[in-house]
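Many introductory courses stop at the sequence. We go one step further.
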Amino acid sequence: MNKFLKQNWLFITVSFLIIVGAFYWYEWRPAQIKKECFNQGINFGSTSTNELDEYYKNCLRRNGL
């Protein structure tokens, strides 16, 4: 096992970084953007559900979702 790690440490490291990067880009980042847009919509003081929904959708578009 030790010989395997010595020979393939670069492949293992690059693979790990790709997996972590994909998780961040496709899972963590969109969830944080959605949470931030929702909180901004609430703090914006929209009076109706339609205004909140419109603000939320515009915020998502503005942030690339």
